[in-house]
Write a sequence for this structure.
């Protein structure tokens, strides 16, 4: 896996658009189709916003780190925050009620990330922050 780019975002809503633009350029150059590029943009936006909200608690002194890495058949997104994050056991398995309606107290970010990406991994790093690693395969 070769690091393509690495950058930091301020913990300010709207800065996720920088990450969306970067991932779009790289995915396009790799040959991802338009629909997968839109999936990538959605996922990186959700991951960055989650880092700002749940990790950094909207602390504008904290940053969100983003690394984009690629090989011949995949693009991997790594998003880091500087907060305490959430207990992975508290991440809901479903964001829907039994009737199929979205739960009021549950965001759609994790649902979108885990359902659009090929691979997803979350890691708490006590005293450092949290990292999510998300991969998309070119042939899928």
């Amino acid at each position: 896996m070769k690091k393509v780019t690495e950058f930091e975002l301020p913990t300010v809503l709207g800065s996720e658009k920088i990450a969306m633009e970067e991932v779009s350029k790289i995915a396009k150059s790799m040959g991802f189709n338009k629909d997968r590029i839109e999936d990538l943009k959605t996922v990186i936006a959700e991951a960055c916003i989650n880092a700002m909200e749940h990790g950094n608690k909207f602390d504008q002194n904290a940053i969100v780190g983003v690394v984009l890495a690629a090989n011949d058949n995949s693009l991997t997104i790594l998003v880091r925050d500087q907060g305490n994050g959430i207990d992975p056991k508290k991440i809901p398995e479903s964001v829907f009620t039994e009737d199929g309606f979205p739960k009021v107290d549950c965001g759609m970010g994790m649902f979108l990330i885990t359902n659009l990406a090929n691979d997803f991994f979350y890691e708490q790093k006590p005293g450092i922050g949290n990292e999510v690693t998300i991969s998309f395969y070119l042939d899928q």
About this structure: The radius of gyration is 15 Å.
